[in-house]
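The following block was generated as part of the benchmark described in Methods. Ligand: NAP.
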Amino acid sequence: MGINCLNILRRGLHTSSARLQVIQGATPTKRICIVGAGPAGFYAAQLILKQLDNCVVDVVEKLPVPFGLVRFGVAPDHPEVKNVINTFTKTAEHPRLRYFGNISLGTDVSLRELRDRYHAVLLTYGADQDRELELENEQQGNVISARKFVAWYNGLPGAENLAPDLSGRDVTIVGQGNVAVDVARMLLSPLDALKSTDTTEYALEALSRSQVERVHLVGRRGPLQAAFTIKELREMLKLPNVDTRWRSEDFSGIDLQLDKLQRPRKRLTELMLKSLKEQGRIAGSKQFLPIFLRAPKAISPGEMEFSVTELQQEAAVPTTSTERLSSHLILRSIGYKSSCVDTGISFDTRRGRVHNVDGRILKDDASGKVDPGLYVAGWLGTGPTGVIVTTMNGAFAVAKTICDDITTNAVDTSSAKPGYDADGQRVVTWDGWQRINDFECAAGKAKGKPREKIVNIEEMLRVAGV
Ligand code: FAD
Ligand code: NAP
């Protein structure tokens, strides 16, 4: 067969289910379903497709659009981080991968159905909830989660009506992780810097009317336990027109501990100390105010109360002293949490993740026995920590386990499995996503942005041609 014929065949097969027949050999095609098209899902698919010849990988994704938190979490002013999308796109275009967008586990399809239709199922549906402080008044209008705020500026369908109240001078962010710093940066960045990013148009409009001048970033522990990393702090310190103010008492004795610290922690601490020493030299009409050793205690209109804490073996222990911070808006940024979307999943409600040992899902926590053919990777399995590279390494390891279990017959692949039957469902294929992508990029180009995201599911489906 000539190269042209091969290419035509490949193109034709790419969009039709017929292509799957070609790869069937004497033994049944191994069918693997991955639930969730975020980094964990795509990295796992990449390794499985590389290691197993006679296999088909189907990716089932709740939203019409792929990429999970790379699209809806990573800050708009970090476009370089989103380059991983190019790798994911290459994986998605592999002739043995099919993308089923707009199909949600637990709503459109059950885990039982997927298990009947695949030899192995890998859950990578991430963490779509957030942890709560469990304080009275937490459900008040002036308290919102950082997760919702991030989803709002990043255009997650359903988040567009959040309407955060940016009419006050003081914002308090509870928690000092990188999500908290992302949110602080979005609130304090000059609008012009955001206009050329893929920040949603409605968020840019709301930020243009923002009266926010002071952002407190409050941690319950000390500078040596801060969860943000050096790159993110550096970006804050470089923000034009923003004066970073530390409290010198928070750093008492910290310099004496520098030599005992691991290198990344040491460099981060040195940067904080340098910034503390230089503070006041840069004038700015806005202020970034990191505050340590304060644990959330109470919420009341216009302010938040914190217990002053002391460190005991790195844990924050509240003292009887308190401090109140003027807080027109409070953003809770204390971590994400996964949810159990199907009753068939052995879920650890307390820790907010699926019970597993190295990615193999347990039948139940008590027996400790593995459920053959069922796996978990990404934040759903590890809990909501780590950057994309961490997620990648974890997903590669679980994908390798799946391949090993299949090749050693720990997973039964002797009988043929049909794969997902999408009949009657409004499925967005990879071609459908490409249409959305082209549409968004063209809409963004007209405004000098990399893309203008569609934020409405029906509109996504219309553009995808579904
Ligand atoms: P996700 O990315 O959440 O992917 C899960 C996918 O599953 C989603 O597409 C979701 O729609 C889908 N899904 C959910 N429910 C269902 C269902 N029922 N059925 C089917 N599909 C479903 N890391 C960096 O390296 N650099 C950064 O700058 C960075 N910024 C971040 C900013 C924020 C605000 C956050 C929260 C994280 C950031 N991270 C960053 C970390 C990074 O995003 C994670 O490591 C990574 O996204 C985790 O991947 P995942 O596949 O486990 O989950
Ligand atoms: P995180 O890094 O785990 O930080 C959570 C913060 O909340 C910590 O400061 C923690 O303090 C605090 N906290 C937790 N429970 C609390 C409570 N009950 N009361 C007060 N404070 C509490 O989580 P995250 O910021 O959501 O980030 C998740 C992951 O995504 C991280 O690995 C992060 O690096 C990654 N991420 C990376 C980037 C980037 O690379 N630019 C951007 C965003 C996110 P304690 O330490 O005291 O528990």
